[in-house]
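Blinded run. Sample ID left blank on purpose so nobody reads anything into the name before looking at the predicted structure. Input follows.
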Amino acid sequence: MEDTLVPIAFFLMIGTAIWIVVYFRFRTRQELQLTIRKAVETGQSLSPAALEELAQALQPKKSDLRRGLIWLALALGLFVFSFSFDDGDAFGVAAAAAFPLFLGLAYFALWKMGSDDKQGGNA
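Blinded prediction complete.
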């Protein structure tokens, strides 16, 4: 019985964590839309600068950089953890570190491309 509870609890935790992230992103977007809707209904004019600032609330500039740092830190942690094994399992853990490593590098590339686009439009 205990052999089946551990994997079930593990996958329930993963599912719950994903659900929490998705739910709070949905709530943030919903509240932003309600704010814009109330402003329009009360007759307030929304300047392009205000709309751009509200749009940036959904996509913060530093989010890709932060995500990249988190994934790279996870990859480094897995790689260092692989040195704690004496047998052939160390290679498997070190190889598993490649997944968050490449995700982190991809987020860094997205962050760099996004910052170049912002600078290119202002010049």
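Unblinding after everyone has recorded impressions. The two ends are 65 Å apart (CA to CA).
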